[in-house]
């Protein structure tokens, strides 16, 4: 497959942007998904000045990395989350990217208010469309716990620039289903895929390096190839949550993930 393969800076949640870019580049990645999530991983500040953006772009150049997507998650069931979502959208053209990953309830969303979300997603979608930005809603939380339940929501939203960011471990964590049984029907609605592994079942936070868990990536990639998926991937590793492991372990995990996926035909 010739899809873009990126490393996600959220994998370096408690570490600096420099440490993230160094580890991602040294692992072999040529692309990066940058995190701009208030209160979680703020490698790109939502209120970044022009000077800060120029500095970030210089760091990317230094490490030979290009931006494939921005992680701009916020709680879109709240007015405050809508404001932050628009700020994240505004970052996209400044960083030279037209794809923003987000989620119904932000990073911590579980029980979500669908009516409130729908009030805000139309506003955000129109705002993003005026800036030529696509929104990819992540399989995450309860309203989008699996691909199967996400598709009807995307159909209801019915905006050309609102698609799905499929997460190969979140479908297990939130929905209790395996990606190999869930992802095929989602492909027509996919803008992005998080390649994330898991060693646990539903509700178990244990997301190791790609290839060190139970997710069948060979079969997932085969399904996506069969269905003609051509959009980006990124590797996200969230370990066992906070406290994050030493940075050396994060570096190792990114290297293992890249090597695993390269053997499976991605690079």
Word description of this protein:
The chain is an alpha/beta fold. It has a single domain, classed as Divalent-metal-dependent TIM barrel enzymes (TIM Barrel). An eight-stranded parallel barrel has the order 1-2-3-4-5-6-7-8, surrounded by five helices. The longest helix has 17 residues. The chain is globular, with a radius of gyration of 17 Å. The chain starts with a strand and ends with a helix. The model has no long low-confidence stretch (mean pLDDT 97).
Mind sketching the topology for me?
Blueprint: E1 5-8, H1 17-27, E2 31-35, H2 50-62, E3 66-71, H3 79-95, E4 99-102, H4 114-129, E5 134-138, H5 147-157, E6 162-167, H6 170-175, E7 190-195, H7 217-226, E8 233-235, H8 247-263
Parallel strand pairs: 1-2, 1-8, 2-3, 3-4, 4-5, 5-6, 6-7, 7-8
Helix pairs in contact: 1-8, 3-4
State the secondary-structure class. alpha/beta
Helix content: 25-40%
Q: Describe the main β-sheet briefly.
A: 8 strands, parallel, barrel
CATH class, please? Alpha Beta
CATH topology: TIM Barrel
Strand content: 5-15%
Q: What is the C-alpha radius of gyration, as a whole number of Å?
A: 17 Å
Helix/strand order, N-terminal first = EHEHEHEHEHEHEHEH
Helix segment tally: 8
Number of strands: 8
Strand order within the widest beta sheet? 1-2-3-4-5-6-7-8
Overall spatial form: globular
User: What is the count of distinct domains?
Assistant: 1
């Amino acid at each position: 497959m010739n899809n873009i393969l990126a490393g996600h800076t959220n994998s370096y949640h408690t570490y600096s942007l420099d440490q993230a870019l160094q580890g991602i580049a040294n692992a072999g990645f040529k692309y990066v998904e940058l995190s701009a999530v208030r209160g979680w991983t703020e490698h790109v500040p939502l209120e970044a000045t022009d000077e800060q953006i120029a500095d970030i772009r210089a760091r990317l150049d230094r490490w030979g990395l290009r931006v494939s997507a921005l992680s701009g998650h916020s709680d879109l069931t709240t007015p405050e989350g809508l404001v932050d979502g628009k700020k994240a959208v505004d970052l996209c053209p400044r960083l030279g990217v037209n794809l923003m990953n987000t989620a119904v309830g932000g990073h911590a969303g579980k029980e979500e208010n669908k009516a409130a979300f729908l009030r805000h997603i139309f506003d955000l979608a129109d705002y993003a469309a005026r800036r030529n930005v696509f929104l990819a809603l992540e399989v995450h939380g309860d309203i989008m716990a699996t691909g199967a339940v996400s598709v009807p929501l995307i159909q209801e939203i019915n905006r050309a620039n609102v698609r799905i960011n499929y997460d190969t471990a979140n479908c297990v964590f939130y929905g209790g289903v395996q990606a190999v049984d869930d992802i095929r029907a989602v492909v027509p609605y996919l803008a992005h895929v998080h390649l994330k592994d898991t060693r646990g079942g539903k509700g178990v936070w244990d997301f190791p390096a790609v290839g060190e868990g139970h997710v069948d990536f060979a079969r997932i990639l085969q399904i996506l190839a069969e269905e003609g998926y051509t959009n980006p991937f990124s590797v996200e590793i969230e370990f066992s949550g906070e406290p994050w492991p030493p940075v050396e372990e994060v570096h190792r995990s990114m290297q293992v993930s890249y090597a695993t996926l390269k053997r499976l035909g991605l690079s």
